[in-house]
Amino acid sequence: MSVEIKVPVFPESVNEGTLVKWHKAVGDTVMRDEILADIETDKVVFEVPALNSGVVEELIEAEGATVLAGQVIARVEEGEVAPTKAANEQTAEPMVAANESPADESAALLSPSARKLMDEHGLSSNEVKGSGKDGRILKEDVMQTLEDQSSENKAPSTPATPAAVALPDGARPQKRVPMSRLRARIAERLLEAQQNAAILTTFNEVNMKPLMDIRNQYREKFEKRHQVRLGFMSFFVKVAVEALKRFPQVNASIEGDDIVYHGFYDLGIAVSSPRGLVVPILRDVDTMSVADIEGQIADFGQRAKAGTLTLEDITGGTFSITNGGVFGSLLSTPILNPPQSAILGMHKIQERAMVEDGQVVVRPMMYLALSYDHRIIDGREAVQFLVTIKELLEDPARILLEI
User: Fold this and answer.
1) 365 and 393 in contact (C-beta within 8 Å)?
2) Which of 86, 159, 204, 232 has its CA 20 to 30 A from that of 59?
3) CA quadruple 241, 242, 246, 247: dihedral positive or negative?
4) 296 Cβ neighbours under 8 A, 6+ residues apart
5) How many angstroms separate the CA atoms of 330 and 350, rounded?
6) Positions in the chain short of pLDDT 70
7) Residues acting as catalytic residues
8) Hey, what domains does the chain have and what are their CATH numbers?
9) For residue range 164-186, what is the model confidence (pLDDT) as tens digits?
């Protein structure tokens, strides 16, 4: 019997997707739940699994085709097939591999997508360090291992050979590629924000020395106890929450003719991914510890790189923080992430000459930028909000004392 393979049901805000890759060809055997195709939407990438074991009878849509929810894209002739090694690994429950001892059990816990990727690249579970629960190996762990191996294998001074591409004298080559759905959606939202909001930006600067002193003093103990790197973003998240409590309109949004004041704090943290900028959400961040925040941000970064963020991860949010400083930006004007009304921009830390008590001293300074929707936030409130951020960062004890 022939079984139809359909496009998954998309979330309400997603209308269509692009079939970016087939993992099987006509005539290939497939096991139940084995991944057949990847479909990219403007938010996330969906994996389409086989509903039954059998043989791929027909691929109706080609790679690159635009598809709709519920659309039939393939047919699989149902039947018993001899499972391949990859299919066995993908469908089996996590267990100790035959050639591994019980002591290696944590390394053998694999997600289905991780098993498939490891099989494709000939990796064993002993070569990949799992970051999931109980040492479970995730797809992003495998991708990180492959990237590390690639970096190690690169010759330090072996440039690519330009002779491989023969171009006539005076040629001016160019390459045209279709814009990804995520990139198109980013462009659409940026234009939407500029056209539908009255965006202004206010600036300030912060002396990062107090924060850097705290980080240097406690980083080793923190990382040893919590097994997570101590960065600066968690401090910015903490002070942002305190400032949002003092200026609730910055945490609000406009819906029609109404202003909606949110009694919770869901902060979006902008992270870079191979597909473009994404903004996963730290939910109820006011209830999270510094270690929880750092761990969640690190997880977001890994999953953004691996392309495994879910729609839930990037939906919602009441305020956002973006750090252009990681790319060397000294100053910029961040753009709102609708329907949010404000976004905080961090930048590069740079030593500068500052005057303190009549003396010129060198301090590690960072410019801060707050872009805000002037329809809901007045200039006075925006400036005071950013000053609050500055004061809390320069005297972190004020957070504990709530002053």
Assistant:
1) no
2) 86
3) negative
4) 282, 288
5) 8
6) 11-13, 42-43, 81-113, 116, 131-134, 136, 138-140, 150-167, 182, 401-403
7) 374, 378
8) 2-78 (2.40.50.100), 86-148 (4.10.320.10), 182-401 (3.30.559.10)
9) 556 677 778 888 877 777 677 77
